[in-house]
Structure formats: structure tokens, C-alpha cells
Amino acid sequence: MTSMWALRILSRFLAMVGTIPRRKDGTVHRKLADLFEWVISANPQRADGVVAFDVVVDAETGIWVRVFVPAQGMGGDSSELNPKADEMMPVIVYYHGGGFVFMKPNVTLYDQFCRRLAGKCSAVVVSVHYRRAPEHKCPTAYNDCYAVLEWLNSEKAEAILPANVDLSRVYLAGDSAGGNIAHHVAILAAGKDLSPLTLRGLVLIQPFFGGEERTAAELQMKDPLIVSLELLDWYWKAYLPPDSNRDHPASNVFGPYSRDISNVAIPPVLVIVGGLDPLQEWQMKYVKEMVTIGKKVEVCFFEDGVHMFGQLKQIEIAEQMLIDIASFLENREE
Ligand SMILES: *[C@@H]1O[C@H](CO)[C@@H](O)[C@H](O)[C@H]1NC(C)=O
């Protein structure tokens, strides 16, 4: 029960974070939002078997990444990285949630989550800071996140990343808006030659998809934890181009205006769905449509999963989600 209490308090707090900095005219009071986004600097010391450091990808746009590397041996900082040198490590490029509007990789919640993800998957996690809405609307987030894939292939990245990163095993992962981004970045990447970088899979954790239609879950969940319908609608307004609605192909990926992606090479997808998440039916629709056009998709359904449950270490099933993600990766490596 304690964890339910902790969850309710946290949920109220997150609801405040998502509400107070929003202005009526659709803009965000950034300074105020920053106050709520408790940040932490990258910890170069080994903590839970992982070291972290920040790298600027593009000074002009402000894109930067926080890199998490599983390391072994005594202490050491990132300058004397001692990664698990005997094995090559896959890379998980991670896009955080926050409705395309809030959060960044150095928010404590995401820093800790990516550290756990790196440890559990024995993977280098590259957590991306992309430009956010409403200051930067669709498709800026997609393009920024795609740019990080090109950067991963560059000599600049090679000089900074540990020698045993295996670019032939790259996964795109993200939660909520970040899950939406992972899907769209995979489509951007499909037409390009990124070799040696190869996408092996997508991990969409409670991805933020939507549409004009109202699903039963959206209508029936009167007071869902973490995200209200009003907040979700506001996020879409903030992110989608002016004069568009939630049927825009960015949000309604299998909607009336979306393009046919049956011939687009999308790697196998894992979708995490929560039974207490108002977005669950959009996610299940995504799964169904992807399967219909012949894509490989797996689902992990958590009946007690509220939106964002996997990022909240207070919730017991969050650990199971990490285990499921790790085994999805393992199964892709055979
Ligand atoms: C966190 O990220 C923001 C936005 O990029 C940056 O301005 C700030 O300096 C960072 N703070 C820490 C402690 O990493």
C-alpha cells in the first residue's frame, strides 16, 4: 500500500509539473517549468555498475546526449573508462517522454531510469536532448533525434564512445512522446544508408499516439494517474503544426492522413502497454495495424500499469518491464 501512496503523491506532483507552467495561449513558462524539472549532473563515478557523461552533439541546435556505459572494475571515472571490454555492447538510443514539451535527459527521473536500463541490458544508453514544443513544433523532435543517429556514425562520436560499442546493434527506445519519436525516427532512417549503424529493434514504452476519435479508455478513465485527457490534448496542440488536429500523421500514425508504411523496413518492435493508461487503445491499435501490414511486433501488457509506470522505480512492475526489455534485446541478438 505504501507504494500506492507514493504513486498518488508522485502523480499529483507530476500533474502540477504538467499544469502550472502552461499558459492559456498555448506557450510554456520555461523558467517555471525548469524549476520543476529537478536535474542532476552526469555521474562519472561508477554507480550501480554504470558511468555517465554528457556530450554536445550540435552546439547550434543545442542537441546533446547523456551517455550511460556499463563499466566494471574499481571506481574510475569516464576518463579512465573500464567498460566490459571483453564483449561488444549494443547501443540503445533513448528518447524521454514529457509530451514533446517537458523533461530532458538530466532530469533525475530519466537519469536514474537510463542508468537502470543500461545496467539491465548491458548496453550503452544514449539519452537524447531534443528541442521541445511549443517553441519547436513537429517535426523538429524527429529531425533532432534522427541527427543523433548520423552523429553516432561520425568520427566525433567514435572518439568519445567506448571502443566496444557495436553500431551494428542499435535499438531505438523511448517512453510516451519518446516512443512516438522512436517510431518516426525508424521511418526516417529506413530510407537512408547509415551503415555500419544498423537498427535491430524498437522499444516503444507506452508510446504517445492519438487521434480525433475518443477511445473507450480515454473516455472511461475519469481521473487517470499522471496524464489527464485535457493534458494529452494540450500536448498535441503544442506539438502538432498549426491548423492540424490529432489526426495528423505524427499522432494518428494509422489514421486518415498517414502514409502507407507497409513497404518501409521497420525492425521488430516491442510495445509496452499499461492497463491503467488512457492511451492503451491507441497503442493496441498500433500493434494491430503493424501486424496487419506484416511487421514483427511483440506486446508486454501490464494490467496495473499507469502511464509512466516503468520510469517510476517506486512501482514494483517497473523492474519486470526492464527484464522484458532486456530479453527482447537478447532474443534479437541470436
Ligand atoms: C540540464 O540540461 C539543461 C538543458 O539542456 C542545461 O541547461 C543544464 O545545464 C543541465 N544541467 C545539468 C545539471 O546537467
Automatic annotation (TrEMBL):
Residues 92-309 form the Alpha/beta hydrolase fold-3 domain. Residues 1-19 form the signal peptide. One of its GO terms (molecular function) is hydrolase activity. InterPro entries: AB_hydrolase_3, AB_hydrolase_fold, Carboxylest/Gibb_receptor, Lipase_GDXG_put_SER_AS. The active site is at S176. PROSITE patterns: LIPASE_GDXG_SER (PS01174). Pfam families: Abhydrolase_3. It comes from the Eukaryota. Keywords: Signal. This is Alpha/beta hydrolase fold-3 domain-containing protein. It comes from Physcomitrium patens (Spreading-leaved earth moss).
